[in-house]
């Protein structure tokens, strides 16, 4: 489970990785966003706070559905990449901020989305902040969506070899990541078990794309750090051992959790 101290340290972990993040990270399946918009009853023009927005991978599909998005991202390099990608799109703005202190006005958004980010948050402080910035929602419509691309660690020889590489070279691979977010932690944040949907997703990557995917991860050694050169040599080895037509496939389960956060205890 990610601690508040880890959440505080999280922004700087990606400063040197923004370019690799743009080139290497997967997007999210379109049916996931269709399900999200339908379940939350979002109408065109509704405001979504994309918290921990990174380079804007989750903001783009929301804009494409006629929603307005404020991307909240603490890391300047990641925020700059999001602006390069989406800054010219109507209805988009990006601001510095964190899940615990977004800087947004009270009751200013209709939905909060955290894609590939909630495991970095302090759940209690994030819940309080989300409740502050959310407008009252009618009925039981969900107001918070948590999304992850959960990479499959097994299922093909390549996936198993890639997982072994991360276990061998990862600096704190076992300690960080969404796999530390338990069902109990989610239920505590939402006050009950949230609605859950799963969608298939994948990437077909050449060696350059696979290298960017690896280096976009905060838990592997960056250039100049111990193990970096050896890690890339091992990556090339497993790529050439498993590639078909010059590509390998990474499979994901795209996870969507939807609900309303529990009110702060009195």
The gist of it:
With 266 residues, the chain is an alpha/beta fold.
Annotate the secondary structure layout:
Layout (H helix, E strand, L loop, with lengths): L3 H6 L8 H7 L5 H11 L6 E5 L7 H6 L3 E5 L3 H11 L5 E4 L15 E5 L7 H11 L10 E8 L5 H13 L13 H8 L4 E11 L1 H9 L12 H15 L5 E12 L7
Parallel strand pairs: 1-2, 1-4, 2-3, 4-5
Antiparallel strand pairs: 5-7, 6-7
Description of the structure:
The protein has 266 residues and is an alpha/beta fold. It has a single domain, classed as Rossmann fold. Helices cover 36% and strands 19% of the residues. The protein has 10 helices and 7 strands. It has a 7-stranded mixed beta sheet. β4 (111-115), α6 and β5 (144-151) form a beta-alpha-beta unit. α2 packs across α9 and α7 runs antiparallel to α10. The longest helix is centred in the C-terminal third of the chain and has 15 residues, at 228-242. Residues 1-8 have low confidence and may be disordered.
List keywords for this structure.
266 residues; alpha/beta; Rossmann fold; 19% strand
Oligomer type: single chain
Strand line-up in the sheet with most strands: 3-2-1-4-5-7-6
| pLDDT < 50 runs, ≥5 residues | 1-8
CATH topology: Rossmann fold
User: H/E element string?
Assistant: HHHEHEHEEHEHHEHHE
């Amino acid at each position: 489970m990610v601690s508040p101290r880890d959440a505080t340290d999280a922004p700087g972990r990606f400063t040197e990785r923004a370019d690799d993040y743009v080139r290497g990270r997967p997007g999210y399946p379109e049916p996931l966003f269709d399900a999200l918009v339908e379940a939350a009853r979002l109408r065109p023009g509704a405001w979504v706070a994309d918290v921990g927005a990174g380079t804007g991978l989750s903001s783009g599909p929301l804009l494409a559905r006629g929603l307005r998005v404020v991307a909240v991202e603490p890391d300047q390099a990641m925020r700059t990449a999001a602006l390069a990608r989406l800054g010219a799109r109507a209805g988009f703005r990006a601001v510095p901020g964190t899940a615990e202190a977004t800087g947004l006005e009270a009751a200013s958004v209709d939905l909060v989305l955290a894609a590939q980010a909630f495991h970095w948050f302090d759940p209690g402080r994030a819940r309080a902040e989300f409740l502050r910035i959310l407008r009252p929602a009618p009925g039981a419509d969900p107001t918070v969506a948590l999304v992850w691309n959960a990479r499959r660690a097994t299922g093909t020889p390549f996936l198993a070899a890639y997982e072994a590489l991360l276990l061998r070279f990862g600096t704190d691979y076992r300690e960080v990541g969404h796999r530390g977010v338990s069902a109990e932690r989610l239920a505590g944040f939402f006050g009950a078990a949230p609605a859950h949907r799963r969608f298939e997703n994948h990437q077909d990557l050449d060696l350059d794309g696979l290298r960017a995917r690896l280096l976009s991860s905060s838990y592997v050694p960056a250039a100049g750090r111990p193990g970096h050169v050896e890690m890339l040599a091992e990556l090339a080895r497993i790529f050439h051992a498993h590639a078909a037509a010059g590509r390998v496939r990474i499979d994901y389960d795209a996870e969507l959790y939807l609900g309303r956060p529990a009110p702060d205890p009195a």
